[in-house]
Amino acid sequence: MDVVAEILERTAKDAEKFKPIHVKKHLELEYDVGSLLAVDINDLDAKLINKEKNDYIKNLTRDNIQLLINQIWQLPTERVDDAVVVKLPNAKTLLPRSLPVPKEKTLTKWESFAKEKGIRKSNKAKVHWDEELKEWIPEYGYKRAAAEREKDWVIEVPGNADPYEDQFAKKKQAKVERVAKNEFQRLRNIAKAKNIKIPKMGVVNPDMANSKDLVTAITVAKSSTASVGKFQSSLPKEKEARGVADITPGAKRKRKMPVVPSMQERSENLAIIDSVLNKKPKLDVTKALSKHLYKEQEMLHEEPSSKKPRAGKRGKKKGGNPVAAPKGGKKPKSGKGVHKASGNVGRKRR
């Protein structure tokens, strides 16, 4: 009996956690099950909103969702893959979209041709069996290229081809042209889908070119020089291309600086003013100490003299010939003087 009472008590506590599925309303809600919409037309309780706003709105939302789920489970159900599924009826309410309806993607030239001829895309295998190599080769990727190099280690020269022509280089160039053609076609499809006019790039096919294509090719060739066609000779009665005359050779387009916010500009200016006003002179202690020591050494080595020698004149050496003084009355930089009579070098007098 104690065990039964404990189970009943536990069941009662669990039942208190979950609210009942039956909700009573003064007025029935308006439902649109196809749009999963329920409209509550009952009046709100102003007292509960003022006292416990969040709890009141939370409970009200829970009750309305419970009523909507009850309406959904009244529809016929079916089981699909261990799941119970309800088929919703058609919607009655037209809900507004936050974004416009996306437009249909324009078909490329190949897609329109395939649709017209009824060609359907089939899933191809990623690998295929090669009888010559006796192994599975992928349709794309680096392993396919390695298999092709191993397979085409020798290429037969066609009968009408030059025997000295490099067939490997010719095959490589053909592959580069195919890749470039596919890339050009892809870019042209993108431009066509976005209604972008493709710029003229000279004559694409000389056999199918007309007079306009030739004029465009001449203009492109002239403007591709360093002088932008300024010094190129022109044909008689040839009109100057539009926009070429306004181009200055060597001119570069200046990039506009981005607009600086006012607060950032103000802070930068204040930082510059503070750095100027609060600038203190820097004292180089090592340099000042070396200057002071140098002056002290000069004062120690100097001898006091009462008479000052006149500028431009020298005294005579004892027992020697007179020494020529330099121009301007200055001492020679090397500290040596030249003897006037013999040309020997004499030491400077201290």
TrEMBL record:
Residues 307-319, 328-339 have a biased composition (Basic residues). It is found in: Nucleus. Residues 295-306 have a biased composition (Basic and acidic residues). InterPro entries: Ribosom_reg. The keyword Transferase does not apply. It comes from the Eukaryota. Keywords: Nucleus, Ribosome biogenesis. Transmembrane segments: none annotated. Its main location: nucleus. Residues 231-263, 295-350 are annotated as: Disordered. Belongs to the RRS1 family. Involved in ribosomal large subunit assembly. This is Ribosome biogenesis regulatory protein.
